[in-house]
Amino acid sequence: MSTIDELIRSRRQKLEELEKKGINPFPARIELSGERIRIEKARELSGKKVLVSGRLWSIREHGTMIFADLKDESGKIQVLFLKKILSDNKFESVSLLDTGDFFACYGKIFETKAGEITVEVEDWQILAKSLRPLPSEHFGLKDVEERFRKRYLDLLLNPEVRKRFDIRSKLVTGVRQYLDGLGYFEVETPTLQVLYGGANAKPFKTHLNALNIDVFLRIADELYLKRLIAGGYERVYEICKDFRNEGVDQTHNPEFTMIEFYQAYSDYYGIMDVAENMLRYLAKIIFEKTLIKVGDYEVDIGKPWPKIRMVDAIEDKLGLKVAEETEKSLVDYCKKNKIELVGGETKGQLIFTIFEHLITDSLIQPVWIIDYPKDVSPLSKNKPGESDWVERFEGYIGGKEIFDGWSELTDPREQRQRFESDKRAVRKDKEEAQQVDEDFLEAMEYGMPPIGGIGIGIDRLTMFFTNTWNIRELIIFPTMRPKE
């Protein structure tokens, strides 16, 4: 029998011994006298009697006295079992406790000669028997796959992991506070959609038995949020799960969280201002400063961000005037620089591909890249007088894309043509194309005001604020292949 099996067997034997003694190892509540307080607060109450609870972290026997460490969410404290204070049954039963057990105790706070703040236990209660031993705190839980599969252990043994998820929670709260303060309304739109849209992505498909129809898990909530603008809302946002049936890599997961917000009577400049100020607001909540480390760089998001046209960014970096090039010359340039192509790309798609492959990594200090090819932006409004370009932007910091938004297209005639054109566009997977959404087009025909909008990945935002560039580190239960 393996060591782990022996340890599990020992714990199950202790469980049986507890039950023989009439001790319930899984009670519904704490039955000790007093009101439970957090360990963090208890540590400040020297000479007072307290009731604390948490998980036993270590147990050290010294004859007629037994020491243990007790942890809750707020901190750790030492507890002391003395034979002269506890009844014989209570003291003897301490030997049936294990590290990992949930436990409560009542007693006086004092400081040992060694300076250790301690609870002198007068009474105790087991709250849940741990039937499996926790991994060694010294060796920890190091295997990455195992950490993701057993996040509950990862959180217990790796404090930096818990810290990252605490920051994520603060970010979501901060986003809501910021947008609510600007008069935005938080809304909810369908997760199951008859037709997917709002992004170029391959959807998940399922069947709705009650209506006997096929439906899709949403890939974005954009088209529903803009329906609400048509319905009279002027500022709306949604924080929701999106699902895209695509690959898994360092920055992409099939299930992820997005915040999208839309503002009537605004454009992409207005939305850039809102997003830029939101990032500063969040930085002050998390760090109390605007100087942030991204990768190996320090960036200051407190200064105004420059706005640079995509064509200018390419020319400055590569010396290539893409607007003056032909499709053939751009294809040749891609081949020369070993940029993989599907074949049949339009000029706009080629320009965007060159930008993504050769420019983005160099965008270290905060910058807005603006004015994108129309061919890759089917929901964006045209640049006045520039038929091949649209009012779209992306925000880059530390070589990472953080924001993506645009002045929204509001002409239903142009939108229909864009939908149809996008379905014909060259791409590896045709399912990634925007669909012709007749219901959305009808909503547009009733009239939409000028709109600015943006989509921001909450996971990506957390990666930015924790400088952790693996998305599965920031999704508390990431999608994993099942073990055989």
UniProtKB/TrEMBL annotation:
GO biological process, one term: lysyl-tRNA aminoacylation
Lineage: Bacteria, Candidatus Brenneribacteriota
Name listed for the protein in its UniProt record: Lysine--tRNA ligase
Origin: domain of life: Bacteria
Cofactor: Mg(2+)
Species in which this protein is naturally found: Candidatus Brennerbacteria bacterium RIFOXYD1_FULL_41_16
Gene behind the chain: lysS
Matching Pfam families: tRNA-synt_2, tRNA_anti-codon
Residues at which Mg(2+) 1 binds: 394, 401
Enzyme Commission number(s): 6.1.1.6
One GO CC term on file: cytosol
